[in-house]
Structure formats: C-alpha cells, structure tokens
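Appendix B. Extra example for self-study. Work through it before the problem class; the solution is given directly after the inputs so you can check yourself.
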Amino acid sequence: MRALSGLLGARAPTPRLLLLLQCLLATARPGSADDSAPDTPFTTPPVREEMMEKYSNFSLESHNISLTEHSSMPVEKNITLERPSNVKLTCQFTTSGDLNAVNVTWRKDDELLENNYLVNATGSTLYTQYRFTIINSKQMGSYSCFFQEEKEQKGTFNFKVPELHGKNKPLISYVGDSTVLTCKCQNCVPLNWTWYHSNGSVQVPVGVQMNKYVINETYANETKLKIKQLLEEDGGSYWCRALFQLGESEEHIELVVLSYLVPLKPFFAIVAEVVLLVAIILLCEKYTQKNKKHSDEGREFEQIEQLKSDDSNGIENNVPRLRKNESTGQ
Amino acid sequence: MVRAAEPPDGGWGWMVVLSAFFQSALVFGVLRSFGVFFVEFVAAFEEQASRISWIASIGIAVQQFGSPVGSALSTKFGPRPVVMTGGVLAALGMLLASFATSLTHLYLSIGLLSGSGWALTFAPTLACLSCYFSRRRSLATGLALTGVGLSSFAFAPLFQWLLSCYAWRGSLLLLSAISLHLVACGALLRPPSLAEETAVGGPRAQLTSLLHHGPFLRYTVALTLINTGYFIPYLHLVAHLQDLDWDPLPAAFLLSVAAISDLVGRVASGWLGDAVPGPVTRLLMLWTTLTGVSLALFPIARAPTALVALAVAYGFTSGALAPLAFSVLPELVGTSRIYCGLGLLQMIESIGGLLGPPLSGFLRDVTGNYTASFVVAGAFLLSGSGVLITLPHFFSCFSAATSRPQDLVTEALDTKVPLPKEGLEED
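Solution. Structure tokens for the complete assembly:
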C-alpha cells in the first residue's frame, strides 16, 4: 500500500492536466464506477502495473456520498466487507460559492491521508475520489472526506466485518442433559470459528474433549457446539468468534443449567392443589347426597304412611291410587 | 322415588358445562398451542419439522380414534370414573415425555399415552352434557366449547413463558400437572338421574344399533366431509399469508382475529340454536355452507381488508357450526345412545381430520400455491352441508326433540335386545 501511494504521489507535479482529463472523462461517462483503467490516462510505471495485477482479481467496491453546503449533520455510510477488495470512495459537494475556495481532505480514523486522491469540479459540484485496497484488518476503519468552506462538511464511510446476529434469550438446560449452541452468519463465510467459555471474567477456549464437546460445522456459515452431560459449572457465557481475512466478529450466548428440583417444586404444588380440589368436590357431593337421602327417606316414609291410611280407608280410594301410579309411570 | 323424565336443563348441568369448558381447554387448547413446543423440539432433537409434527398428529388421531372406547366405557361405568382415569393418563403421558431422550419416546408418551387419556375425557363429557340439557343444549355446548378458544389465547403466551423459565423438559412437567386438572373436572360429572334412559342395552348392542341407523350414518358422512375441510385454515393460513408476502406478526394477528370471531360464533350459535324453533340441522347446514363459501373465497382475496373480513367470517361460521354439530346428535339417536353415538362419530370423522391437511399440503406442492387447497376445502364443506339436507325432519316445522326419547329408543333397537319395559313404569 505504501508503495502504491508513493507511485501515485509521483503524479502530483501535473495536477491541472490531471483535472482537465478527469473532467473530460467525467462528462463522457458520468457516475460510472466499474473499471480503473480509463481514470489513469498516463502510462503506468511497470511496478505499479504488477501491483495492480496482483490486486486485480479483487472485487471493486464503489461508494458515494453527496453533501451540500447546507448539510447540518455529518453523513455516514456503513459498509460491510468480508474479503479483501479494491475500494473507490467518491464524495461530491454542491455549493453555491466558489469551488476553488473549498479545501478537500481525506482522513482515516482522524489520521490525515496523503495526496493520493483526485479532485474534480463540474459546474457547481466538486467531486473527490479516493482509491485504495483493503487487504487485512489494518485497512479497516472509518474513512472521511472533508470539505472546508466556512463550515466543515464531513462524509464518513465505515468499513466493518460482517456481524453475527444472535438470540438475546439465554439457553436453558438441565443437569445431565445435552444442549446445542449455534452461531450463524447470515450472508458471509468466515475462515474459521472458535468457541470460548467464560465463567466469570476469564475467557477459556473450548477444547474438543471427546465425551464432552462436539463441534459440528456442516455448513460453512454456521457452527454448532454440542455439550453433553451438563453440569452446573457448564453454565455461563459462551462466545463464538468468526475469523475473516479482514478481522473478527463475536457473538455471546448465555447458557443456564438448572437442576431438576427447580420445576419439581411448582409441579408438586399444582398436584397437591388438584388432589385438594377433587377431595372437596367429592366430599361436597357425599354431603349433599346424605342430606337428600335423609329428606327422601322422610318423604318416602310419609308416602308409605299415606298409602297405609288409604288402604285402611277402603276400596273407594283405589281410584286415586291408580291415578298416582299412572303419573309416576310416565 | 319420582325420577325426572326430562333433562333438568339447568341446576347441576351448569357445573357440567363448567367442567366441559375446562376439559375442552385442557385437551384442545393444549393441542392447538403445541406449536410453541415445536420449535424447541426441532432444536433439541435436531430432527426435521415433519417428523416433529407427527407428535401432535398422533395425539389427535389417538384422541379421536379412541373416542368410541371412552364412550363405551362411560356407558358401562358412567362418565365420572372414565374421565378421571383419562385425566390421569394424559398427565402421565406428559410426565413421561419430560424425560424423553428420543423422538420415539415423545411419540409414545405424548402421542399414545396422553392421546388415549384425552380420548377418555372429551366424548363422555359432551355426552353427559347432552343428558343434562335438552331445550338449552346448543347454548350449553357452545359455552362449553368456548374453552377451546379462550385457552388457545391463554396457553400460547403461558407456554412461551414456561419455556423461557424452565425449557421444554420443565415445561412438560408443569403441563402434566396442569393436565391433572382433568381429574378434577371429571369429579364434577355427577351422573344424571335419568335411570330409564341410561340402562337401555349394553355398549355393544348400542353400537350395532347405531351402525344400522340410516340418519346416523348419513350424519357421520356429512361430518367427515366437513372435518376434512375444517382444519385447513388453522394449519395453512399462515403459510398462505406468507406466500402473499405478509410478515409473521400481522399473520399471527389475523389468526387471533379469526380465533376471537370463532369464540363469538360459538356462543352466538349456541344461543341461536336454542332460540330458533325447528330442527338444528337447518342452522348447521347454513353455517357449514357459509364456512365453505368463505374458505373458497380465500384465494381470491388479495387486499388486507378483504383477508381480514374473510378471516372474521371464517372464524365466526366455523365456530358457529361446532356446538351445533354436537347438539344435532341427541336429536338423531336419543340421549340413551348419546355416549356411543358421540364416540363413533368422533372416530369416523377423524378420518377426515387426518386426511384433510395432508391433502391440502399435497395440492399445494403440486400447484405451487394454496388456491387449490382452499377451494377443495370449501368444496368438502359444501358437500358435507349437502348431505345434511338428507337428514330426517330437515324440512319439518317442528323440532325433532319434541318427540319423546323413549319412542326413538323403542323403534331403533333390535328385537333381539330385550326391552326392560318394567323400567318405564318405575314407582
């Protein structure tokens, strides 16, 4: 990267010719950002061509930010990058004032970058372009373009490795059971996955002990850690780390290991309540039936007495008896 | 001692309604909310979704197929001991499931054991309910069945909360304790004092007489057809909505809307079934036709408002036909054979319930969307309602319940079974 910037710096002596050619090319092909060759009108020195070939099989990432003199808040753009790439960042600044009075600078994380960026003016818009290559994690970070007029307008490109999306709820399991912790990366393929366990503050890498831990990586974008025969000490925080060429990404999973006594207490409470309910219902019924039987027996006794008295009254009372039988027979 | 010849239509009957309410909540509410456990099982056993779905399917199948057994046993022993045993079995199944180490273990414990427990509870309870009510039978059944709707609401968040505190093993343990309340519900089922009704013929004689009963067989066919289409929206509506690019949260909300209108439909239809004179079969046919129509219209609706309206309509009409389906039966076969009739009916209509969803899924796989599935479901419902027209007393102006129960019994039973005529003139 340093060699490249040095070679680009060699173009500094002829800025006006550069600007003219840049403007001509910009008007001929506005906004296209696919290839690199037309933007470099000079015959490139051989060393630089070799470098370009080495990085030419990387993809090109192009990003734009538009600013005006009235932008009140700094404009930010978040870019997720997984593999080494060639990067082209363009900032455009529209103002009604004098374009030549605008001071254009680029910074990476507050560090001022050298003169390896291009500046171009068309009409009332100022374009600036910064091209570089991201190979490892040192080149990741925030790149900002600054337009200094009366106020300073800033546009920032934030480069980050892909994030792992995790569940926020803790995983609950029981002593003696086995559980599976999963880490998944949505649209990315890490080079490597590692698991860490922290019970307290110290992070300990999870080794692959035969009967305890099994790491399963059937798909490249996910990893599964199976822990067998859980103990209470196995609870705590687990971290899965995804390693990319351009950095690392981490996810936190909480594991809670309960003993069987925990749900057993409410279980027995509810069972006791059910037994109580059943007892109450059956006892109530026995009580009401006993009362009913007493009252029924009393009524039957009265009926028997009535019949006896009817019998003793003679045959003329057969008619009422028949009627009574008919009514009960329905 | 004078025994009541007519069902009391009240009194202890309302306690039976309460018991049936909680039972339908504990049986069907649990089954419907089992989807919450689904995700946990997939993660814990690392199995495919289709294999996990079999747990609930086996449970439902055993519950419905085992209904005749429950009914036969309750004819012999009365509903109370049978339901209490069923409650113990259901709780035991869940308890054993909490120790499961493999999927087969879950199939056997939840599917077979709990399923047979549920089989022993539901049919006897509804039959017992029909013994206690005649004029207000539909309302009582409707109120009892609202337990399903309310519990689907309450149990889903409850299960989620249990899962977040205790994971699936502890949750199944607590679910077993909750299911034990079925025993308490069974204790409430005091046998009604209709001696001359309940002791007519043994269970086997009743079953044979039912199988020769023309209207009963036609009714079974109708309900089987209805059952084939009935469950499809519950399973496939969410998937259909996601095909139409709905987010999961609004789709779940639509199902809740349908569930609320299902609840309202049950109670309204129960009240209407008793208030409107004439046979209940006519109302049942009306609701079934409307359900079929609303199902068939589902694929045509694209706009959210149309889908919400159809969901409300489907929920209301499908909830409305549920209590009526159970209250038509006593009018057809009489309260003496209600236990056996209900059991047999559940068993045969379960064929529809088992075949409907896979058929719908198959149509979806073949055609690529759910249009054919919904239309076929609607067609099944409409054909079921067509068969309902062939039932007796359909076009009469008087309700079949006004005919005396003893007449239905005497004309339907074989001459081989001796009629205990002496019981009819008991003092």
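Self-check: Chain B touches chain A at residues 1-2, 5, 43-44, 46, 84, 164-167, 169-171, 173-174, 176-178, 180-181, 183-184, 187-188, 190, 424-427 (CB under 8 Å). If your reasoning did not lead you there, revisit section 3.
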